[in-house]
């Protein structure tokens, strides 16, 4: 049973996330040839203030 975890910075609308789930699910089904009911997709949304690269958060980078 594949479990696919995706981590994103929060802020995308629910329809966009639903599209992502659909596309990732379809790719897993094609690549692994497993039943739909066995595929799990989890999206974790992280606040922009909690995600940093190079000691700069995404919120700080966006504010510049």
Terminal Cα span? 43 Å
Per CATH, the class reads: Alpha Beta
Radius of gyration: 15 Å
Q: Would you tell me the structural class of the helices and strands?
A: alpha+beta
How would you sum up the global shape? elongated
Q: Look at the structure and give the mean pLDDT.
A: 97
Instruction: Indicate the low-confidence ranges by residue numbers.
Output: none
Number of helices, counting only DSSP H or I runs of 4 residues or more? 2
Query: What is the CATH superfamily classification?
Result: Macrophage Migration Inhibitory Factor
CATH topology-level name: Macrophage Migration Inhibitory Factor
Sheet having the most strands = 2 strands, parallel
What number of domains?
1
From N to C, what is the helix and strand string? EHEEEH
Please state roughly what percent of the residues sit in beta strands, choosing from under 5%, 5-15%, 15-25%, 25-35%, 35-45% or over 45%. Answer: 25-35%
Which strand order does the major sheet show? Answer: 1-2
Q: Would you count the extended β strands for me?
A: 4
Question: Share of helix among residues?
Answer: 25-40%
Q: Could you say what the CATH architecture is?
A: 2-Layer Sandwich
Organism: Kibdelosporangium aridum
Protein name: 4-oxalocrotonate tautomerase
Keywords: Isomerase
Family: Belongs to the 4-oxalocrotonate tautomerase family.
